[in-house]
Amino acid sequence: MSDYDDTYTESQVIMTAVKIIAPFTLTYGLFMTFHGGDAPGGGFQGGTVVGVTVLMLAFAFGIEPTRQWLRNSFITGLVTGGVVIFGAIGLGMIALGGEFLEFYKLKEVFHIKPKWGLEAVEIGGISLIVSGVIISLFFTMAAGFTPDRPSGTGGVSGVDVDDAPDAAEPEVSDDD
């Protein structure tokens, strides 16, 4: 059993501060994502700021309510969608006769700037992957790891609490 109290304590100061700051950090993260090709930033940095905004909400309003609000299927969809978009754009360039992510084929075939291919990869692929991975890693680490919990609640896979020996009580055999 752990020696610390890990229960959620509500703080009106933190909740109010997060309510005020979160819209600005989310807007800044989206700004960085959408202006990545023209200014410092991009999909990685913007996705990080968006992901950290969700973490900030979890710290203020509780990890479990935030985890329930952002279901695992949604976070998995973010990461999977980003990978699919990234791969589809890369493979699309191969289909146009170029190399993987060779955006100059966009100019040759569609007469549009190669920059739009990079923007699509950053906005549609990288930012979704990064924000989803940050959020999922946070929830995974917040669940913790204790060998005495059954699988599905952060414990060791296949170990049932009833079947595991208690560390405080040594097993006694009949041979003694």
UniProtKB/TrEMBL annotation:
Keywords: Cell membrane, Membrane, Transmembrane, Transmembrane helix. The chain crosses the membrane at residues 12-31, 43-63, 75-96, 116-139. Its main location: membrane. One of its GO terms (cellular component) is plasma membrane. It is a multi-pass membrane protein. Pfam families: MnhB (PF04039). Residues 14-135 form the Na+/H+ antiporter MnhB subunit-related protein domain. Residues 160-176 have a biased composition (Acidic residues). The keyword tRNA processing does not apply. Residues 153-176 are annotated as: Disordered. The keyword Cell membrane applies. InterPro entries: CPA3_antiporter_subunitB, MnhB. It is found in: Cell membrane. This is Monovalent cation/H+ antiporter subunit B. The lineage of its organism: Archaea, Methanobacteriati, Methanobacteriota, Stenosarchaea group, Halobacteria.
